[in-house]
């Protein structure tokens, strides 16, 4: 069981995916926040920084890899692990080059997803 103060931020432009992941992670005991717009990641405040960011590669015309590069270049967010996911398995190489700590292809197995979340938070 995770520490109850571990915060996870999920960013995806698909409300159904946001809702499903929110429910799954809350049931595991995490504090979960969701955003449909990647721009929200560029305005994180130090007092509420997540312990993990789960980020879709493609967000309504925005490239999650570009958002990731900005996160990894900023002092206050560079050490936050980022798990990226995409319906395009071929995205894994470019996602890792951009600095992602892990990658999952959609659709993914919930047990595998939770194992990767646990690993990134340990």
From TrEMBL:
<dbReference type="InterPro" id="IPR001789">
    <property type="entry name" value="Sig_transdc_resp-reg_receiver"/>
</dbReference>
<dbReference type="InterPro" id="IPR011006">
    <property type="entry name" value="CheY-like_superfamily"/>
</dbReference>
<dbReference type="InterPro" id="IPR050595">
    <property type="entry name" value="Bact_response_regulator"/>
</dbReference>
<dbReference type="GO" id="GO:0000160">
    <property type="term" value="P:phosphorelay signal transduction system"/>
</dbReference>
<feature type="modified residue" description="4-aspartylphosphate">
    <location>
        <position position="56"/>
    </location>
</feature>
<protein>
    <recommendedName>
        <fullName>Response regulatory domain-containing protein</fullName>
    </recommendedName>
</protein>
<feature type="domain" description="Response regulatory">
    <location>
        <begin position="7"/>
        <end position="121"/>
    </location>
</feature>
<dbReference type="Pfam" id="PF00072">
    <property type="entry name" value="Response_reg"/>
</dbReference>
<keyword id="KW-0597">Phosphoprotein</keyword>
């Amino acid at each position: 069981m995770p520490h109850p103060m571990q915060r996870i931020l999920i960013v995806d432009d698909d409300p159904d995916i946001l809702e499903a992941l929110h429910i799954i992670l809350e049931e595991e005991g995490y504090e979960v926040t969701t955003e449909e717009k990647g721009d929200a990641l560029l305005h994180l405040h130090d007092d509420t920084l997540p312990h993990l960011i789960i980020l879709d590669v493609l967000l309504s015309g925005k490239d999650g890899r570009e958002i990731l590069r900005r996160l990894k270049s900023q002092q206050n967010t560079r050490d936050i692990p980022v798990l990226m996911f995409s319906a395009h398995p071929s995205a894994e190489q470019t996602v890792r080059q951009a600095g992602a700590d892990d990658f999952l292809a959609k659709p993914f197995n919930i047990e595998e997803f939770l194992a990767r979340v646990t690993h990134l938070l340990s």
